[in-house]
Automatic annotation (TrEMBL):
Xref: PROSITE patterns: HTH_ICLR (PS51077), ICLR_ED (PS51078)
UniProt-listed Pfam families: HTH_IclR, IclR_C
Protein name (record): DNA-binding transcriptional regulator, IclR family
Domain IclR-ED: 69-254
Alphabetical list of InterPro entries matching this protein: GAF-like_dom_sf, HTH_MetabolicPath_Reg, Tscrpt_reg_IclR_C, Tscrpt_reg_IclR_N, WH-like_DNA-bd_sf, WH_DNA-bd_sf
Domain HTH iclR-type: 9-69
Key words, A-Z: DNA-binding, Transcription, Transcription regulation
TM helices/strands, residue ranges: none
Any single biological process term in GO: negative regulation of DNA-templated transcription
Length: 265
């Protein structure tokens, strides 16, 4: 259950989101932070300076900020997340419009499905921005879709780790046999569903994406209030998601080719 507290403190939320961005995406300038948070540069600068003071960030000689010592242990190895996010985001916006629901990019970090980007639905009743949140991979639609696409040996490694439980979030362990059954079903269907297994009142559908920058495991998801979800809607949702996934994969190939051409000059 991860709903915003009734008296959310915006400055604290922005600081935590910023720390998560640094950890997940790598080096960031003040202007980048300001744009991502939707705040003035002066505000972003103050937030970054406080993160530096508390060792959640550090400033390099080129003036860019990176994750600090307090985040070093959990720093993700996915160095291309920022580039992946940039390519995927326009497609998420289109997917949010096509489905009328919140669209997300999810990446696998260890055993966690982490939300790297989120585009909210325009409906009054909607699932909020998920960016920066992380859940055990086997509980989320995006995480399940990723697990189903991993090489067998890698999937077994992740499931074994998940079978030992999650010390922070409580006993979210999974039986390996149960995990294998979930994976088999997703491989047969081509998509995954999470019906209120991470948050009460929230249902999500996940589809894996492939291409340059997704080698660690990535998926797109559509999240919606459970009261608006019905099985009869699944074909339309999945169809829109598959179209978005195809567009993303084509864009990833184009971006990789453009980068290669630039490097060859």
């Amino acid at each position: 259950m991860k709903n915003p507290p009734p008296y959310a403190i915006t400055s604290v939320d922005n600081a935590l989101r910023l720390a998560s961005m640094l950890q997940l995406e790598g080096p960031m300038r003040v202007a980048d932070a300001a744009e991502r948070l939707g705040v003035a540069r002066s505000t972003a600068h103050r937030l970054l300076q406080m993160l530096v003071y508390r060792d959640f960030a550090a400033q390099r000689e080129d003036q860019r900020y990176v994750a600090g010592p307090m985040l070093a242990h959990g720093t993700t190895p996915h160095s291309g997340i920022a580039e992946l996010r940039a390519v995927v985001l326009p497609h998420l916006r289109e997917l949010a419009v096509a489905t009328g629901e919140t669209a997300n990019l999810v990446v696998l970090v260890g055993t966690q499905a982490r939300f790297a980007a989120s585009v909210e639905s325009m409906q009054a009743l909607r699932v909020g921005d998920r960016e920066g949140m992380a859940f055990p991979a086997h509980l989320t639609s995006g995480g399940r879709a990723i697990l189903a696409e991993l090489p067998p040996h890698e999937r077994l490694r992740v499931l074994r780790q998940l079978s030992m439980g999650h010390p922070v979030a409580g006993d979210n362990s999974i039986d390996p046999i149960e995990g294998a059954a979930i994976v088999e079903r997703i491989q047969r269907l081509g998509y995954a569903v999470n019906d209120q297994e991470t948050e009460r009142g929230v249902t999500a559908v996940g589809v894996a994406i492939h291409g340059p920058g997704t080698e660690g495991g990535a998926a797109i998801t559509v999240s919606m209030p459970t009261q608006r979800f019905a099985t009869v809607h699944l074909p339309g949702i999945v169809g829109a998601m598959r179209a978005a996934a195809a567009g993303i994969e084509a864009s990833l190939v184009e971006a990789a080719q453009a980068a290669e051409a630039l490097d060859a000059r």
